[in-house]
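Section 3.1: Structural characterization of target chains.
Under the original work plan, the team committed to producing a structural model for every single-chain target entering the pipeline before any wet-lab resources were allocated. The record below documents one such target. The sequence was received from the expression subgroup and is listed exactly as submitted; it comprises 105 residues.
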Amino acid sequence: GENWVDVNAFLYCGITYVRLQKLDSAIVYFDKGIKNYDKFSDCFFHKASIKMEQDKFTEALELLTMGKELFKNGYFHQREYVEVQEQLYLSDLDELENKIKLAMR
């Protein structure tokens, strides 16, 4: 079952679908990542980004708030000594938060 899959696989599948502009499929994979590891800030961030693009600002901000909290507690995809592909930084979360708040005005 899916619980045997490395949770980062769901993240990268979701990112791939975003690049293909298949946002509904991307959300499915970000949801799978969150389901299998409910502290996966990267999936919350990317899902929030999609929701913002879909003009679902309140939902986007809720997802981002959760993702930011998790990120600050160290729950994000990282490796020692090297940057991972699509590395997430606090500045990325802050930037998205500003975009969402601007859009909500």
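The mean pLDDT is 95.
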